[in-house]
Amino acid sequence: MQIQAVIGSQCRRDWEHTDAATAEPVRIAAIGLGWYTRGRALPALADSDRCEPTVLVSGSAEKAERVAAEFEAVERTLTYDEYAEGIGTDAYDAVYVCTPNAFHLDHAAVAADHGKHVLCEKPIERDSGRAENLVGVCDDAGVEVMTAYRMHTEPTVRRAKELIDAGYVGDPVAVRGDMSQRLLKRVNPDPDQWRLNAELAGGGALFDIGLYPLNTARFLLDADPVAVAGTTGSTHDAFDAVEETVTCSLRFPGGVTAACFASHNARQSSSITVTGTEGQVRIEPAFFQDQDRKLELSRGDSRAEVAVERVDQMREEFDYFADRLRSGADIYPDGRHGVVDVEVMEAVYEAADRDTWVEV
């Protein structure tokens, strides 16, 4: 096959259905103004020609006003109570939910009640029951819901999937993926943060970053696991309620296997590799946003390494969402795609507790 035909235009948006110059921008209400929304989501929305951040919703009116001053497109700010009451619904078309996992359902239900579409951060909820309810209320209201997996629109991952789909690796046999970071050192030193609260987060390293190799394996293989095994562990006192480290094995249809590792107390690292009967595709680094990506290819005696231009992953994700809303094309990953990951992760915890394989 001609590799250049796939990777020659690395960052092409092969998912576009509408012309950004003529499509009406989607007005977004950002729900939750934590560091990720402020530092990643809002700058991406402000830079987009398909979306704009017109409403900010926060538990603190003062915080919302302070953040709003940094973004010209913001028309108004709301408290959570005002958002729930339906104030300001004429100022936005859809919501972006970026709060602790256990609040996703509540905010999505409000959006659905107001007839607004939903882009919900991953994992879609803290447990599969609430995740199903979230999708159900959106379905009942006739609004779209998308799970915010930015790897699905990351150009390096999309080019890897094209190669796999075109047969470059032959028949996929195995996937290896990992993601690790020092949470308390690099992200948030507070031992009482919500990511370490089982009721708010649903889980630890698996729910927060282990989800990246798990979901990207599903995306690259275009398949869902049928059985899982796993182990979890913690060495730091801050991780007494959720796991610090997780390792899981996944069985996919056709005998394909995957091994995923994640840790909140290991050096920052991420990669994903798909090995097949004829070749191998590897991305490293894979999942962290502020890193240049390399696509490593091997088939027979041939080797190649391709540096892929860095993009704003959040803008790609927002623009995809807007393109789908304006075109009416199917959304992938939709809400039910997000539910599957929560079900798989719950099965990993069950498998770790029982020390056995668990069917999904």
UniProtKB/TrEMBL annotation:
Top-level lineage group: Archaea
Keywords: Oxidoreductase
Protein name in the entry: Glucose-fructose oxidoreductase
GO molecular function, one term: oxidoreductase activity
Cross-referenced InterPro entries: Gfo/Idh/MocA-like_OxRdtase_N (IPR000683), Gfo/Idh/MocA_oxidrdct_glycsds (IPR050463), GFO_IDH_MocA-like_dom (IPR055170), NAD(P)-bd_dom_sf (IPR036291), XacA-like (IPR049838)
Every Gfo/Idh/MocA-like oxidoreductase N-terminal domain range: 26-148
Organism: Halobellus salinus
Limits of the GFO/IDH/MocA-like oxidoreductase domain: 157-281
Entry-linked PANTHER family: BCDNA.GH03377
